[in-house]
Amino acid sequence: MTRTDASPSRHALVTGGGSGIGEAIALALVAAGMRVTIVGRRLEVLQAVAAPYPDGMHAVQADVADAASVAAAFVAAKARFGPVEVLVNNAGQAHSAPFAKTDAALWQQMLAVNLTGTFHCTQAALPDMVAARWGRVVNVVSTAGLVGYAYVAAYCAAKHGVVGLTRSLAMEYAKKGVTVNAVCPGYTETDILRDSIANVMAKTGRTEEQARAEFASGNPQGRIVQPAEVADTVRWLCGDGASAMTGQAIAVSGGEVMH
Ligand code: NAP
């Protein structure tokens, strides 16, 4: 039987689904009729997002940087909703520092969460997708995965790594019914951005309005991207209509980055 986008039986796992872009993605996929497992380190935050959807959303605690924790999360997710058919690697952290002040710990943390976390989850998800000859992997990257920015070298290196992983896996799994894509948001209205604005205010003495305007100024549309706009791109990539899309890195950035 050919399933359609509206199939209620599809199981999506969204990392970092308790807040920001990941929460918007989880809500968009539930609205599209999928059953969604959301994963993150703060269980109470995840449970609050899942609570309104007792039959459609399930919260599982895990640290994506830890392979054993990811393996346990997939066991729990599968026990609840069956094999994961859609994986959205969204969990991420963005810490800024001048390169000269980027110590090994910050470097390792950026790689561990943003890049190795994506590796762990994708390895856990692919065998079931290959067995079913259908699967979707969508990596939430950043425009920092496509171009360089000052003061975020470790984050940028990790996100460029995720784009490379995306492109390699797209080639390796092209004939197995699995697509692998990246979605690359520009500055988006979430806690990560709010923290960055607070950081600029603390370091430069700018007002919130000035700092916010600075972040918006890089976007040709002169505004901050909304999480729902990123989520809608992810939802589309997860559907049958996007079967021919693989190995792509799609910027959702008001035209800031064109590739
Ligand atoms: P956010 O609200 O801080 O979301 C990040 C999520 O990742 C949180 O729910 C967090 O939950 C989870 N997370 C962090 N470390 C984790 C770990 N080790 N294991 C499991 N979960 C972890 O920020 P966001 O802006 O929505 O970020 C989502 C993604 O978008 C990230 O990959 C980020 O790099 C990317 N992005 C954001 C922007 C932007 O301007 N906001 C722009 C481009 C790309 P816990 O703390 O509970 O673990």
What keyword list fits this structure?
259 residues, alpha/beta, Rossmann fold, seven-stranded parallel β-sheet, 8 helices, 46% helix, globular, binds NADP nicotinamide-adenine-dinucleotide phosphate
Tally of separate domains: 1
Q: How would you describe the shape?
A: globular
Please state the second-level CATH architecture. Answer: 3-Layer(aba) Sandwich
Strand element count: 7
Say which molecules are bound, naming each kind only once. NADP nicotinamide-adenine-dinucleotide phosphate
Q: Provide the succession of SSEs.
A: EHEHEHEHEHEHHHE
- Computed structural class: alpha/beta
The description of the largest β-sheet is: 7 strands, parallel
What is the CA-atom radius of gyration, in angstroms?
18 Å
CATH superfamily: NAD(P)-binding Rossmann-like Domain
